[in-house]
Specification:
alpha+beta, Ribosomal Protein S8, Chain: A, domain 1, 2 domains, three-stranded antiparallel β-sheet, 8 helices
């Protein structure tokens, strides 16, 4: 048995009456139960439980079910940056999230297109699902933005990282 706490609003959307809940159970090959304290209880075979915990964690961080299920692929990873670890100021966290999202979501969309990751900015986190190289490329841009660098600098560094990894062949396999 595995268990993971997820935000209340996300836990409340996982109800036995919802088709999404049953779809998750089928795909994860596990039984799911949501406790009153927003704990999701996962029961199944050990490997299935491990995979399910990763998927539920991503769902809890704001990803849609279809995107969270990408984690069932062996090469896909989940990465999350907790902005509370960077600053205690709510206003500063909002500013940092806004820098990564960009005007009308353009920055987030560009990072996703160039790197290949799926990103979700939810609560106090910036999370990504992608393979190791895709995540590395996206993190290059995100870190520059979070450190106060310009969008132009972030894009250029990310594009260079993408080009370098493509030339080595990591992304062409």
């Amino acid at each position: 048995m595995q268990q993971i706490a997820i935000p209340e609003i996300r836990a409340n959307s996982l109800t036995r009456d919802d088709e999404k809940f049953h779809y998750l159970e089928r795909r994860l090959k596990c039984s799911l139960r949501v406790e009153d304290d927003n704990q999701v209880i996962i029961e199944g075979e050990p490997l299935d439980e491990f995979n399910a915990k990763n998927v539920i964690q991503a769902y809890g961080r704001g990803f849609e079910v279809k995107d969270a299920l990408l984690l069932l692929k062996e090469e896909e990873t989940f990465t999350s940056i907790n902005l509370k670890e960077m600053t205690s100021s709510e206003a500063q966290r909002t500013r940092l999230k806004s820098r990564v999202i960009g005007s009308d979501g353009k920055t987030k969309g560009y990072i996703e297109r160039v790197s290949g990751v799926v990103m979700c900015i939810y609560g106090n986190t910036i999370s990504m699902i992608g393979n190791m190289e895709e995540t590395k490329i996206a993190m290059t841009a995100v870190n520059i933005l979070l450190e106060g660098g310009t969008h132009k600098k972030a894009y250029a560094a990310m594009e260079k990282e993408r080009k370098d990894s493509t030339q080595i062949g990591w992304l062409n396999e």
